[in-house]
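The authors assume throughout that readers already know how a fold can be written as discrete tokens. The format is easy to grasp once an entry is in front of the reader. For illustration, here is how one protein appears when written out as sequence plus structure tokens:
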Amino acid sequence: MRAQRSALVLASALLVAGPAQQAEATAWEKAKFVFHLGAAYYAFNTWVWRPYREYKFQVGAPSQRANIVKAGVALAFAAYQVNLAYRMTQTSSDPFLRRIGSLLPGFNKSLNAVGNDLKRGRFNEAGIQGLNRQATNLLNTAERQGQPIRPVAVPIPGL
């Protein structure tokens, strides 16, 4: 009788704890996902979009070449972070992650294309503006889904 009672208590605890563990895993997945996208957005905003708006990539700007190369490195870092976030969405059952994850392949491809141009010292104004539109769309979509993505300051080696 005592063994049956212990088994019943254990089975009840597992039934109650099972969904709670799944909910925690989803919260943890979302936190990691938002961190990766926040780090990518911070890198884009700090080393690409802000210098672009301040005309630091224009011909004749002080340290123009260095700013362009830094932007390329930052976009490579951002692409890496977006790729990590995208891989998380592939194994997740969470509807938010799946929905936002569907936007990431195109964004990652654009990050890589513009980043490669910048790393080579080529300024691609249309590409940077397109990246900003895609980033804004991604952030707005996440916000509408109730999961805002904020910039996460992460040191990037060499910048």
Residues 26-144 form one domain.
